[in-house]
Write a structure and sequence with these properties.
This protein is an all-alpha fold and 482 residues long. The chain has 19 helices and no strands. The chain has helices at 177-187, 194-201, 206-220, 224-231, 234-259, 266-273, 278-292, 296-303, 306-316, 329-342, 351-360, 363-377, 381-388, 391-405, 407-419, 426-437, 440-454, 458-465, 468-477. GO terms for molecular function: calcium ion binding; calcium-dependent phospholipid binding; phosphatidylserine binding.
């Protein structure tokens, strides 16, 4: 399909933020469309104390608060006459007023005033006054254990909503009974009508697919997933099950299969977990625990090791900056300097610092970081990652970088990688096509990006690598009529 106006590779599409200036622009200029700087990275701005109705006037530290009624008028009778009975004994000193803004003194033995922050865990200190409390994430080591670990932004922005199919169940105004009956008829009796199965399940969005599952169970008292397992086989079965389970169910089953048995399918972990919003990561962890009665973090720790394990623990902690957070040039410059110091600027590589930056920044910020790094050091960040890393960690970091630069082109590359070389990596092709197809606008953009990069249609490429019902299912998922 044609895709007019698709940006060159390495520049963001219109849906992902503004464009950056041409390569000749000075590096100190912020990207086009970026908001003005918001302050230093991670700084917490303490608001000035406010009096009742208006701010108090400046005063010296420790000075008593001025009287709101002004200075007392002098007595019209002059100084008091000396007492005829001699000097009176001195009385008790007047009570001392605390400085303005200081907390009132508590009687001896009284409990301390209540803190607006939750109590610190045993063995840890309470944060200083005015500093927001640190967030603790079960199963994830606190940031202070990693020297030089850049903390996430302290500002709070509207959270990124979960992807369709990852949020709470929804009731839609759509009747799924006809599709549920069509699926039952296609599998009942002798033989299976695979074309009907493909036509029904490959054209539905996540909410419609959930409605079909419920209707199938309600009307026929049968499990749709179990029926498909008994009536189909091969990669057709794999694809149909992925569609019937919906995007969230498909993800958790892919993760479990990738970490079961001998070896780990690292590419599957990358596809499912990297570049996801905090809401999606939390939904995946909850669903994994519900379905398999196992914590996803524990299984990932058991299959990965050393710093790659720590990389994925950062991802699973769901501390990514929300997509609504702006691009702040001061923060981008700091991240670029940290990346240089962690890679080219020293002997050895600080892997955790690089992993934390690429795992905790949103797509717009990653795009700005890559652009600024290229302008400042005259080399691409991808080239640096290839030079400094290897193995699974290299693949994971490149995945995060490329997705931040252009998520549509990145998906197109992943689909080509599944079909390139000797033989087709069918498990990756099926999973990647199904994941891209849940959002039809996303799928159309992926097809356009694929044609722009490889000068051929994605449909034609899939036809050359698949056949039969498997081919028809993949073509239906990318929007072709079969």
């Amino acid at each position: 399909m044609s895709y007019p106006g698709y940006p060159p590779y390495g520049q963001p599409p219109p849906q992902q933020g503004g464009y950056y200036p041409p390569p000749g622009a000075p590096p100190q200029q912020p990207p086009y469309g970026a908001p003005p700087p918001q302050g230093q990275y991670g700084a917490y701005q303490q608001p000035p104390p406010q009096g009742y109705g208006q701010p108090p006037p400046p005063q010296a530290y420790g000075a008593p608060a001025p009287s709101p009624y002004g200075a007392p008028a002098p007595s019209p009778y002059g100084a008091p006459a000396p007492s005829p009975y001699g000097a009176s004994p001195p009385g008790p000193p007047p009570p001392q007023q605390p400085p303005y803004g200081a907390p009132p003194q508590q009687p001896y033995g009284a409990p301390p005033p209540a803190s607006p922050y939750p109590p610190a865990p045993y063995g840890q200190q309470q944060p200083p006054y005015g500093q927001p409390p640190a967030q603790q994430h079960p199963g994830y080591p606190p940031p202070q254990q990693h020297p030089g670990y850049p903390p996430p932004q302290q500002q709070h922005y509207p959270p990124t909503p979960p992807s369709l199919g990852y949020g709470p169940p929804q009731i839609i105004q759509w009747n799924a009974d006809a599709d549920a009956n069509a699926l039952r008829s296609a599998m009942k009796g002798f033989g299976t009508d695979e074309k009907t199965l493909i036509r029904v399940v490959a054209t539905k969005d996540p909410l419609q697919m959930a409605a079909i599952r419920d209707a199938f169970s309600r009307i026929h008292r049968r499990n749709l997933e179990a029926d498909i397992k008994s009536e189909t086989g091969g990669w057709l079965e794999t694809g149909l099950l992925g569609l019937v389970r919906g995007p969230l169910g498909h993800d958790v089953h892919l993760l479990r299969d990738a970490m079961s048995g001998a070896g780990t399918k690292e590419a599957v972990l990358n596809d499912v977990l990297l570049g996801r919003s905090n809401a999606d990561i939390n939904a995946i962890k909850s669903e994994y625990l519900r379905v398999f009665r196992r914590r996803l973090e524990d299984d990932v720790r058991g299959d990965l090791s050393m710093k790659t394990e720590r990389h994925f623990m950062i991802v699973l902690s769901a501390q990514r900056v929300e997509d609504s957070a702006p691009v702040n040039q001061a923060e981008i410059d700091r991240d670029v300097g940290d990346l240089y110091t962690a890679t080219e600027g020293k002997i050895g590589t600080d892997e955790i610092k690089v992993c934390s930056i690429l795992s905790q920044r949103n797509d717009n910020q990653i795009r700005a970081i890559a652009y600024t790094y290229q302008q400042k050091y005259a080399r691409s960040l991808e080239e640096v990652l290839r030079k400094e890393f290897s193995g699974h960690m290299e693949d994971a970091l490149l995945f995060q970088l490329r997705r931040g630069l252009d998520k549509y082109m990145h998906q197109a590359q992943l689909l080509e990688d599944a079909m390139a070389g000797m033989g087709t990596k069918d498990h990756l092709l099926v999973a990647r096509v199904i994941r891209a197809h849940w959002d039809r606008t996303n799928m159309a953009n992926v097809c356009g990006a694929y044609q722009k990069r490889y000068h051929k249609t994605l449909a034609g490429r899939i036809k050359g690598e698949t056949s039969g019902d498997y081919e028809r299912l993949m073509l239906a998922c990318i929007g072709e009529k079969v």
